[in-house]
Amino acid sequence: MTGAGSAGVRRAARWGCAVLVALLWLPALIFAAGILVARVTGCGATEAGPEPCLVAGIDIGHRLYAMTMMGWVVVGLSPVMLASLVLAAVLVVRRLVRRRAAGRAYPTSRP
Q: Are 61 and 50 in contact, with CB atoms under 8 Å apart?
């Protein structure tokens, strides 16, 4: 495919890939947020089960437990997450090389 239509397809593919990568990394972000909340509130977050954790009069122990258990999902997804990082690095380097080859290198500050 060439022409204006292929640019739209490429743009849609990039957005689709970005959404998939965001969904892939979502459990890691939830896990990190759970650990952060546990540290800030001083609540225990263990695998033994939810513990009572009162924050502003609301027990967030079960929610905190669910957030920290996302760590197990992260363990299962870690090979795919690593592959996404490697692929992203390869794509960035490829794009930089193509820009330089096309003579559209990023501007540098010259007097």
A: yes
This prediction's pTM = 0.74
Q: Give the tokens for residue 59.
A: 């027990």
Asked which of 4-13, 27-36, 65-74, 92-101 is least confident by mean pLDDT, the reply is: 4-13
The Cα–Cα gap between 90 and 84 comes to 10
- Interhelix angle 61-68/70-101, nearest 10 degrees: 50
> What pLDDT, on the 0 to 100 scale, is given for residue 99?
83
Q: List Cβ neighbours of 62 (8 Å cut-off, separation of 6 or more).
A: 50
- The pLDDT > 90 percentage for the chain reads 47
Structure tokens given for 42: 């001083």
70 Cβ contact partners less than 8 Å away, ≥ 6 residues apart: 27, 28, 30, 31, 34
